[in-house]
From TrEMBL:
InterPro entries: AAA+_ATPase, ABC_transporter-like_ATP-bd, ABC_transporter_ATP-bind, P-loop_NTPase. Residues 1-52 are annotated as: Disordered. GO terms for molecular function: ATP binding; ATP hydrolysis activity. Keywords: ATP-binding, Nucleotide-binding, Transport. This is ABC transporter related. Residues 56-283 form the ABC transporter domain. Pfam families: ABC_tran. The keyword Transport applies. Gene3D superfamilies: P-loop containing nucleotide triphosphate hydrolases. Residues 1-18 have a biased composition (Basic and acidic residues).
Length: 297
């Protein structure tokens, strides 16, 4: 997305125009209360939590269709995302998950409410976006695709090294010179994920990144994401249709209701942060995924 002039223009507007004029503060929070830090003294006020990386405040989104009708896609969305957190967004088809992600990414600024950042995202640098279908450039090699956002850097050697490290991280070191058509679907998606990470964005946004893959490839990519997170501690927000994927990867799961999309609940995943394939066998995992499935029914 770093090369899309529309995106660059959007960020330029965002940086210079401040919060959206439709911004109205709302006293509403769907967030679960975080547990008190262990060792907290009674009567001694806990230190204020750090400001979230990203705050979505009272966001409403309406689309106007080609026939002139209005579709309310999102209503009253309030959500804070902390730095280093992995957040999954689930909900029925058409409830506005992609719309929400696109707004956070700055790909759509036609909404009311506010998307506020602790540090304003720099154009084309601070937001990595992964689409459901990996949008790779067919005429560029794997390394050429991953290095797309690093072009124009003076430190060419450093950029090449970063690309090589990222490809190794997802097991694609031997495919640096291959072309997208020579890769499997899972390899293409891994290329798209590390491309989004190449310029070290503040946040990685992924819209159903594993939706088109078979179950074994999906599981492999889940573990790639966990490894990437362990290395980079990147803030990650992703949309999925799979309650198991949400439970396996996320710290918190945002459940949205059918159109107009509202936040129905935000659940903290009751599992240790270190997840391994054995996590899927734990009774807590099954119970939590079952609870999410029940909420979607
Ligand atoms: N460009 C558009 N013009 C008009 N309506 C739109 C447009 N894009 C999305 N919508 C409508 O907004 C609503 C939310 O769409 P969105 O794509 O965000 O849903 P979603 O939750 O991502 O669905 P899915 O799970 O199927 O991907 C839908 O009712 C959709 O028809
Ligand atoms: Mg969608």
């Amino acid at each position: 997305m770093s090369t899309d002039p529309e995106v660059e223009r959007h960020f330029h507007r965002m940086e210079h125009s401040g919060p959206h004029p439709g911004n109205r503060p709302r006293l509403r929070s769907h967030d679960v209360t975080p547990p008190a830090p262990s060792g907290a003294q009674p009567g001694v006020p806990a230190p204020a939590p750090p400001r979230p990386l990203l705050s979505i405040r009272g966001v409403d989104k309406r689309y106007r269709t080609a026939k002139g009708a209005t579709v309310q896609a999102l209503e009253g969305i309030d959500l804070d995302i902390a730095e280093g957190e992995i957040v999954a967004v689930i909900g029925p088809s058409g409830c506005g998950k992609s719309t929400l992600l696109r707004m956070v990414a700055g790909l759509d600024d036609d909404y009311t409410g506010a998307v506020e950042w602790r540090r304003p995202p720099r154009p084309g640098k601070d937001i990595g976006f992964v689409f459901q279908e990996p949008a790779l450039l067919p005429w560029r090699s794997v390394a050429g695709n991953v290095g797309l956002g690093l072009e124009g850097r003076k430190d060419l050697e450093g950029a090449e090294q970063r690309v090589a490290e990222l490809l190794d991280l997802v097991g694609l070191g031997d495919f640096a010179k291959s072309y997208p058509k020579e890769l499997s679907g899972g390899m293409r998606q891994r290329t798209a994920i590390v491309r989004a990470l190449a310029y070290d964005p503040q946040i990685l946004l992924m819209d159903e990144p594993f939706g088109a893959l078979d179950a074994i490839t999906r599981d492999r990519l889940h573990d790639d994401i966990l490894r990437i997170w362990e290395r980079t501690r990147k803030t990650i927000v992703f949309v999925t249709h799979s309650v198991e994927e949400a439970a396996y990867l996320a710290d918190r799961v945002v459940v949205m209701s059918a159109r107009p999309g509202r936040i129905r609940a935000v659940h903290r995943v009751p599992l240790h942060r270190d997840r391994t394939p054995a996590t899927r066998e734990l009774p807590e995992f099954g119970r939590f995924a079952g609870m999410l499935r029940g909420e979607l029914a």
